[in-house]
Protein: Putative nucleic acid-binding protein
Amino acid sequence: MKVLLDACVLYPTVLREILLGVARRGLFTPLWSERILEEWARAARKIGPTGEAQARAEIALLRRHWPEASVTPRAGDEARLWLPDPADVHVLAAAIAGSADILLTFNASDFPQRSMAEEGVQRQGPDAFLLTLWQAAPEAVRDSVETVRAEAARLSGEAFETRALLKRARLPRLGKALGR
Structure:
């Protein structure tokens, strides 16, 4: 299954690392475009003067580890597509170019299901997507989450409870499922 990751799921770090951990375990193939990666780098400016530089370093690692993930939207697709926010057309065009099954985003209103269905792409939010993967492969998802939780604790010097970390990452349903 091919999944296009929108910039809003690549940044912040915890969500991205969980998603890529699950992808490393073979549950899906991640896709993105250079423009999506650029949006992530620009969004990281908000965390301070080093935010963009850190994001660009993480993007370089992403490109190295996932060289086949970058897709280039076709100009014809971008010209013919319509979405409520014209600035998001490139995201759907990238999903089409990569033959993505799913476009993963928090921005449901920007990607109406009807428009998506016409292109053969399903829009999903990260919480529902990861919960579905957990139902199919609980150990792979649990291991990915635990790896990210442990690394967050190591880097911050703080203990993180899994459910609280997932809630902060906007994954409350997955947190609840893993907490059972």
